[in-house]
């Protein structure tokens, strides 16, 4: 349910309660009258003229009965009456939506305490049709109106007035979002000297055309004038040729009297200074327009809250809409509803018909009033980027055509590099790991067991041959000692021979003992390598997987970066959803905080905000509705993409968020209560 639909329902119920009193009593009377009319029609056949009149009265009563049913349902009153057998839903009437506090895409939300009936806002054609129905009924029953017909006409008229009032709010809200976009554009242009220079160059063709037309007009006017001195003509032409006329808004006060005149700029101001003053002048005018728009929306949105205490009147609502239409036409009519004497139904119908035709163009007239301060046209904003793209594309095409062979070679080399990188550092180690797991093959091997066994056997033979020359010995025992690493038999001889090294190196056994020790060192190194080889084989799978980590990590980082860039590009406006909602929520919190600080000490518990504050708050919640449409609304927890990654959201996050927005828009809540709503939103939604 949008703010406009809820506003229509609240105003409609407030009007009916203030003008008709008990709607249920009218429904009971209408049911009895319908039953009696049905009984009388079975007994007698009226004439054709009376039949047509009865048909018009019947349509009037039928439409009023439908509206009264919606009023009672929307007010939470249980309808205990039996519906009339002739009753059927009106094609132009309101619609009953038994959705539970949902928006357009809704879904049934859990933990609901009751069913809320939504009165949909009728279209302007339906409103005009209802007004024609009331006017024709009044014309046919001049001087002979019954109490039921008068109440039916009043009920339909109240629905039309509430619809015109709500449609006016909708038209003003339609102008709020483009106005905010224009202000954001000028804020970006006032960011620095580079932005100012780019904006000046973008708008230079339009400035030159306007400058030329003004210069030509000055020349023609002064040439056609009589009695003008030649020096005066030259002075006027010289003044027309000055560069300050590139900024006509800073030289003359164009527009209505609502637009303030720009302070006079010094003669020594340069181009960038004049550009900055022009941008800030437009920012100020748009800020004033936004303030006026907020006051209009605030005064309109507070009608339902006023109706609960001081009884809203249809005359006041019509006067409010009339004042807004007049204010947009810049007439002398002051804005704001004033006390009006009670009008007859026929005069209210006539006034409502006039306003129904005028409110269709409220948004257009408001946009026309600020058109000269809005951002430039799409052509003016895009001709420079388009020109740069065309020139860059042409230069790139010429370069590619002249270096086609080189580019083909670079492409082939790049493909080969990436292919070798992936195949050698990712696929090959993973294949080796698979073969190790599946077939038991080993990639890492320092030395074989046969080589170590052969070295050990040679050492044993050398020791056995060396010791058999020095007395009796047991070869089996010697081999056992050598296998365990004991060379005591050789070392005893070596210790004796080393006492006379030079003599025994030539005539003794010193060299043979040294060579046996060299073979022993070789065997020890082989055993060490065998132990290392066993360790490598036991951890071969870990080494294989570890060798793929750098390459896989680099590919993962590159793929993730590419995926995020593509997702950001394909996301469109939804990529800024979280950022836009956070910025708007900050503005709402700041607005409520400032309003509470400006409130007098004895007025802390006032029932409603000021009209301007309420209007700005409704405009900000309108922006929230626009951005929150991208929130997930599934029955399970969803995900919301942000600039920092993905955040998990609550089930039915969009419905819950819209429910909080409706609390912020409600004119019945105080500023403190709305601050509590903002705090609840910060606690509930992680992306805030």
The low-pLDDT segments are 41-52, 77-116, 253-259, 331-338
* Broad shape: elongated
- How many strands, which pairing sense, and closed or not: the largest β-sheet? 2 strands, antiparallel
Termini separation (Å)?
A: 23 Å
Portion in beta strands: under 5%
**What is the mean predicted local confidence, pLDDT?**
76
Strand arrangement within the widest β-sheet reads 1-2
Work out the radius of gyration. 46 Å
Class of secondary structure makeup: mainly alpha
Order of helices and strands: HHHEEHHHHHHHHHHHHHHHHHHHHHEEHH
**Number of E-type strands:** 4
Number of folding domains?
4
Count of separate DSSP helical elements: 26
Could you estimate the helical fraction of the residues in percent? 55-70%
Question: What order do the helices and strands come in, and which of them pair?
Answer:
Elements: H1 3-19, H2 23-43, H3 48-74, E1 96-97, E2 118-119, H4 124-140, H5 147-189, H6 193-224, H7 230-240, H8 248-251, H9 271-301, H10 303-310, H11 314-328, H12 345-358, H13 362-369, H14 378-402, H15 404-439, H16 449-467, H17 475-483, H18 488-497, H19 501-507, H20 510-538, H21 540-547, H22 549-570, H23 577-598, H24 611-628, E3 639-642, E4 645-648, H25 653-665, H26 671-684
Antiparallel strand pairs: 1-2, 3-4
Helix pairs in contact: 1-5, 1-10, 2-3, 3-4, 3-5, 4-5, 4-12, 5-9, 5-11, 5-12, 5-13, 6-7, 6-9, 6-14, 9-24, 11-12, 15-21, 16-17, 16-20, 18-20, 23-24, 23-26, 24-25, 25-26
Q: How do you describe this structure in short?
A:
The chain is mainly α.
Which features would summarize this protein structure in a list?
mainly alpha, 4 domains, two-stranded antiparallel ribbon, 26 helices, 70% helix
């Amino acid at each position: 349910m949008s703010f406009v639909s809820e506003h229509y329902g609240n105003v409609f119920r407030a009007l009916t309660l203030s003008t008709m009193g008990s709607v249920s009593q009218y429904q009971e009377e209408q049911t009895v009258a319908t039953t009696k009319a049905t009984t009388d029609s079975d007994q007698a056949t009226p004439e054709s003229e009376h039949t047509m009149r009865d048909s018009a009265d019947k349509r009037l009563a039928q439409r009023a009965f439908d509206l009264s049913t919606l009023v009672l349902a929307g007010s939470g009153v249980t309808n205990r009456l039996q519906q009339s057998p002739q009753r059927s839903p009106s094609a132009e009437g309101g619609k009953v939506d038994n959705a539970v506090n949902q928006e357009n895409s809704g879904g049934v939300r859990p933990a609901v305490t009751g069913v809320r009936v939504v009165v949909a806002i009728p279209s302007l054609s339906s409103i005009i049709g209802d007004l024609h129905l009331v006017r024709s009924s009044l014309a046919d029953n001049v001087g002979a109106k019954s109490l039921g017909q008068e109440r039916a006409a009043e009920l339909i008229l109240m629905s039309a007035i509430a619809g015109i009032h709500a449609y006016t709010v909708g038209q003003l809200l339609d102008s709020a979002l483009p106005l905010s976009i224009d202000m954001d554009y000028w804020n970006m242009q006032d960011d620095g000297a580079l932005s100012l220079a780019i904006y000046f160059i973008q708008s230079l063709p339009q400035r030159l055309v306007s400058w030329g037309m003004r210069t030509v007009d000055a020349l023609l006017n002064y040439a056609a004038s009589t009695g003008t001195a030649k020096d005066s003509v030259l002075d006027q032409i010289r003044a027309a040729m000055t560069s300050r006329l590139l900024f006509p808004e800073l030289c003359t006060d164009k527009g209505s009297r609502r637009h303030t005149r720009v302070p006079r700029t010094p003669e020594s101001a340069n181009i960038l200074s004049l550009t900055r003053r022009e941008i800030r002048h437009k920012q100020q005018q748009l800020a004033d327009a936004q303030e006026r728009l907020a006051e209009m929306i605030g005064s309109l949105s507070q009608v339902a809250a006023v109706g609960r205490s001081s009884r809203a009147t249809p005359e006041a609502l019509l006067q409010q809409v009339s004042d807004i239409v007049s204010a947009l036409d810049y007439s002398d009519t002051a804005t704001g509803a004033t006390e009006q004497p009670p009008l007859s139904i026929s005069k209210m119908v006539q006034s409502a018909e006039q306003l129904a035709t005028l409110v269709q163009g409220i948004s257009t007239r408001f946009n026309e009033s600020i058109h000269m301060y809005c951002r430039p046209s799409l052509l003016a904003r895009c001709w420079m980027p388009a020109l740069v793209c065309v020139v860059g594309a042409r230069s790139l095409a010429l370069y590619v055509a002249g270096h086609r062979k080189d580019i083909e070679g670079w492409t082939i080399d790049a493909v080969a590099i990436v292919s070798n990188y992936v195949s050698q550092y990712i696929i090959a180690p993973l294949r080796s790991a698979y073969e190790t797991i599946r077939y038991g093959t080993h990639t890492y091997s320092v030395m074989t067991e046969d080589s170590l066994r052969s070295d050990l056997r040679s050492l044993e033979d050398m020791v056995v041959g060396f010791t058999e020359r020095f007395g009796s010995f047991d070869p089996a025992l010697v081999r056992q000692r050598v296998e365990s690493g004991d060379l005591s038999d050789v070392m005893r001889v070596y210790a004796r021979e080393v006492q006379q090294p030079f003599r025994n190196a030539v005539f003794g056994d010193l060299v043979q003992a040294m060579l046996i020790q060299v073979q022993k060192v070789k065997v020890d190194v082989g055993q060490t390598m065998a132990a290392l080889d066993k360790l490598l084989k036991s951890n071969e799978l870990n080494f294989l997987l570890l060798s793929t980590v750098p390459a896989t990590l680099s590919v993962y980082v590159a793929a993730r970066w590419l995926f995020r860039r593509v997702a950001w590009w394909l996301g469109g406006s939804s990529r800024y959803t979280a950022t836009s909602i956070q910025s708007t929520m900050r503005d709402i919190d700041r607005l409520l905080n400032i309003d509470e600080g400006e409130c007098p000490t004895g007025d802390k518990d006032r029932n409603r905000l000021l009209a301007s504050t309420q209007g700005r708050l409704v405009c900000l919640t309108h922006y929230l509705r626009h951005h929150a449409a991208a929130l997930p609304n599934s029955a399970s927890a969803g995900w919301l993409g942000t600039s920092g990654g993905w955040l998990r959201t609550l089930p039915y996050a969009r419905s819950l968020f819209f429910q909080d927005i409706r609390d912020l828009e409600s004119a019945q809540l105080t500023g403190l209560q709305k601050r509590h709503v903002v705090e609840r939103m910060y606690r509930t939604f992680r992306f805030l």
